[in-house]
Design a protein that fits this description.
Helix 1 links the parallel strand 3 and strand 4. The strands form two sheets. An eight-stranded mixed beta sheet has the order 6-5-4-3-2-1-14-15. A seven-stranded mixed beta sheet has the order 7-8-9-10-11-12-13, covered by helices on one side. It has a single domain (2-264), classed as Ribonuclease Z/Hydroxyacylglutathione hydrolase-like (Metallo-beta-lactamase, Chain A), CATH 3.60.15.10. The protein contains seven helices and 15 strands. Helices cover 22% and strands 26% of the residues. The chain is α/β, with parallel strands linked by helices.
Length: 265
C-alpha cells in the first residue's frame, strides 16, 4: 500500500485556494520544496523532521526556494539535537545550488548543518535514500533548459509506479514512460490561450489522456483557482473539461494505492 497527498497544487502565481505544487509520498518523501513548503507542512500538522527525503525537479523558484526554511526549521525547532539525516536527490550541480541558496537566505547559519546532516545524491537513478522500498529514475523533460528540468519515475517494491513530470510541456521522455505507470502526476500550468511549449495546457493534456485512456492522470501545478476556496477568484475558477481519466486535484487531497486500485481518501 502506498499513500500520497497533494500539500499544494498551484503554479507559481498561487491561484486562490492553492499553495505551490507539492507532493508528499508516504509522509516521508517530498517532491520539490516550494516557498510555501513549510506552510504546507504546518497545515498538515507535520514538521520538517518528518520528511526523510526531498526530490528536486528543477531550478525555478516555486520549486526549491523553500529549501532553506526546511533546513532552518530542522536546525532550530524540530531536530535541535541533529539526530536525523535529510536526504536530497537533485539534478547535477544541485548540491552547490542548494548550499548557495541556504547561505543567501541565512548567512553563516545553515552551512554547517548542511555539511553534517544533509546527504546529497545527484545520480540519475537508484534507491531512494532515507526510505525503504522505493527506487527512482530521474529523466529530462521539456521546459526552460536553463533550469535543468527533470521528472521522476518512482517504483515501489509492491510494483506501484508513480511518475511526476515536474514542469514540462509535451515531450517524448514523458510519453514513452507512461506505459507501465499506474499514476502520472502532471502539471497543468497554463490555460489554452497561453501559447507556450514549456507547460501542459488543457488541450495538450486532453490529447495525452485520450492517447492513454487506462492511465490515471492527476493534474497539479494548476493555473486556475480552487473552485471551493470560498474566495473571490484571483485568476479564474473555471476548471477546464478534461477526460474522465484526468483528475484536477486540490490542496490536501489524499490518495491510496492498494490491491491494484487508486482510492481517494
Amino acid at each position: 500500500m502506498v499513500r500520497f497527498e497533494f500539500l499544494g497544487t498551484g503554479n507559481a502565481f498561487l491561484p486562490q485556494g492553492r499553495f505551490h505544487s507539492l507532493l508528499l509520498v508516504d509522509e516521508e518523501i517530498l517532491i520539490d520544496t516550494p516557498p510555501t513548503a513549510l506552510a504546507s507542512l504546518r497545515r498538515r500538522e507535520l514538521t520538517s523532521s518528518d520528511i526523510k527525503t526531498i526530490m528536486i525537479t528543477h531550478w525555478h523558484g516555486d520549486h526549491f526556494f523553500g529549501f532553506p526554511f526546511l533546513v532552518l526549521d530542522q536546525k532550530y525547532i524540530s531536530d535541535r539535537e541533529a539526530n536525523q539525516k535529510l536526504n536530497v536527490h537533485c539534478p547535477e550541480n544541485g548540491t552547490e545550488k542548494l548550499k548557495e541558496i541556504c547561505e543567501l537566505a541565512y548567512p553563516g547559519s545553515l552551512l554547517e548543518r548542511m555539511e553534517t546532516n544533509v546527504i546529497f545524491n545527484e545520480k540519475p537513478n537508484g534507491e531512494i535514500l532515507g526510505v525503504n522500498g522505493w527506487n527512482f529514475e530521474r529523466f529530462e523533460v521539456f521546459h526552460d533548459e536553463v533550469v535543468d528540468p527533470h521528472g521522476y519515475l518512482l517504483t515501489h517494491e509492491s510494483g506501484f509506479r508513480l511518475m511526476h513530470t515536474g514542469d514540462s510541456g509535451p515531450c517524448e521522455s514523458i510519453e514513452s514512460r507512461i506505459i507501465g505507470c499506474d499514476v502520472v502526476v502532471i502539471e497543468l500550468g497554463v490555460p489554452d490561450h497561453v501559447n507556450t511549449p514549456f507547460h501542459f495546457r488543457p488541450e495538450t493534456l486532453k490529447e495525452l489522456a485520450n492517447k492513454f485512456p487506462k492511465t490515471m492522470f492527476l493534474a497539479t501545478h494548476h493555473y486556475a483557482d480552487d473552485i471551493n476556496s470560498g474566495k473571490k477568484p484571483y485568476l479564474s475558477n473555471d476548471l477546464p473539461k478534461l477526460p474522465d481519466n484526468v483528475l484536477q486535484v486540490c490542496d490536501e487531497q489524499k490518495f491510496e494505492w492498494a490491491d491494484g486500485r487508486l482510492r481517494i481518501l
